[in-house]
Specification:
alpha/beta; Fe3_Rdtase_TM_dom; 3 domains; Elongation Factor Tu (Ef-tu), domain 3; Rossmann fold; FAD; 2Fe-2S; 45% helix; six-stranded antiparallel β-sheet
Length: 439
Amino acid sequence: MPAALLVLFYLGLTCAPLVMAAVQGHAPRPLRDELASGVALAGLAIILVEFVLSGRFRVISGRIGMDVTMRLHQLLARAATVMILLHPYLYAGPQSLRAGLTPPGSAPLNFDWLGLWPGIVAWLLLGALMVMALGRNGVFRHEHWRAMHGIMALIVAGFGVLHATRAGRYSADPALAMLWWGLFAVAAFSLLWVYVIKPAMKARRPWRVSAVSRLADRTWELCLSPVGHKGLRYRPGHFAWISVGKLAVSLDENPFSIASAPADGPDLRFVIKELGDFTSRLGEIKPGTPSYVDAPFGSLTLDRHRDAAGVALIAGGVGIAPMLSHLRQLDADADPRPRLLLYANRTVDQIVCGAELDARAKGGPLQVTHVLSEPPEGWTGETGFVTAEVIQRHFAQDALRTWVFVLCGPPPMLHAVEKALMSLGVAPKNILLEQFSYD
């Protein structure tokens, strides 16, 4: 499904409650009351649809990118939270405290306790959920936070739907009530898919660690081999969620870009840097350790850029992983297009697969340029960071106009390089980037 259709489908779902409310024919109330109902309807719809923007549905993240998917998830969740938390304070019209005498379709605001208490619970839990989301770093492990966040959000959504259908003027309509419960069922299925169905599917296609080797300073290559199946269908630029030495149903998953190429065979290779938790124990992992893979994900692929005149790869640190996948597959396909790799690191001993890169650059269409921020004495290559000036020295104006530029690295680098490329006239559609940090 094209990205434009996904956007239209999302807008249709989130606006449907407003449209269904507008055609019910109720007598108009004061503007603030209608605004209060409107923001509540829109906010609840966004929260329910948010469950499919979790990043684990390839039909979405594969079209617009994992980073875009998660950024939208964050921004829309914050907007919906503000709407929901604000809407009780917007009401200004007639109100009744007499339970049972103000049915949902009447003009006065219904304070019947049967409909009011689910809204109070949802309102309080939603506020707590947002506070926890904003302050989660350093408090929760990402895997545990992800599960807790999803379960709490589903509870909030359930109480929100119960409140809307019991106390809402418009949601008491059978058709709109059916839509609310239908969206809630989709939300519940989304969590079931991620935490039950997908793990069950992974258990039927196990992997094992076939090798662990040191590539550079605090950087390792992890190789996984399929057990009893043919492996994974993927494209260069994809990434995978992997769990090593855990059960198939486990919260301990980590996303890593795939460094191997489909042409290399069924084994998957990952370039991983020691950053704590699982990654700090890479050197202790033994061959034969059972593993599970949920993949492929991501949009850092060249599928929609087959007509590009050349391929520019700009990597920072372990962002070299998807670039290795691209280079290995391009060579396997004997792709004649010129390609240039700008590879940024802090020091020489952080360069990954330097010998392989040099070998691929000899006599082929690849040119490799290293950029070091802390170069050794006598270094004659690029120094500092990948700036607009560095890019201009290595790319002709025609290349900036006709090549595709693939970026992967730390978020500050990605943003700086993207800005530099656009300042040099590179079209945004010719810039591919994806990041795993969304703060």
